Amino acid sequence: MIQILLLALILGALYYVIRQLGAAEAKAPRLHARPAQKRLARAPAPRAAQPPAPAAAPPPKEALPPITAQANRTLTRGAQQVEELLRIASAVADQEVARRVGELCDTAERITDKIRQRPAALPLVQRHYDYYLQTAHRLMRQYEQFMSSPVYTKEMEFQAKRIEHALVGLQGSFLKALRKLLNDELVEVEVEVNTLEHMMRGESEPAQPMEARRMNS
């Protein structure tokens, strides 16, 4: 009987210990493994934008000499006439006529550029502006009217052909005016070179004593 009581006490004690251990385990916080984090590669810091290199300054343009009001009016009127000739040339169906008018305009612009650089040379080609350029402008306006007319007679065709042939002679007159300016420019250059050579020869001669200079004089 005593043995049975001891066995019951032992079993009870074990049961109590097991319950206490279970309760302690339930109260203990559960630890979770932290998921491995992917290490993100750090993006390189953006490079500061470099300011563009300053563009090289264009060489200063040579200032043109002053020009009189009358000469400026002459050149301005001539430029307007050339612009009108170019417009007519772009509308002409005949490519050969358009080419001839284009050559006239190119020569006229070269003449004007020369006068802008050397206004004193305008009298050499005044007839070019007062007659030849105006005549070319007037004839080509008439030619344009002939070509756009709804009625095209034999007489109109005859006069149109004459105008086409006259373009060749006008180009010769334009070139003659341009040659005058070029020749005048060459003369001016020759004078400058001669003066320079004379000055250089004078500086290169050895200095003479005062007595020698008196004897030579």
Automatic annotation (TrEMBL):
Residues 29-41 have a biased composition (Basic residues). It comes from Paenibacillus sabuli. This is 5-bromo-4-chloroindolyl phosphate hydrolysis family protein. Residues 28-64 are annotated as: Disordered. Residues 49-63 have a biased composition (Pro residues).
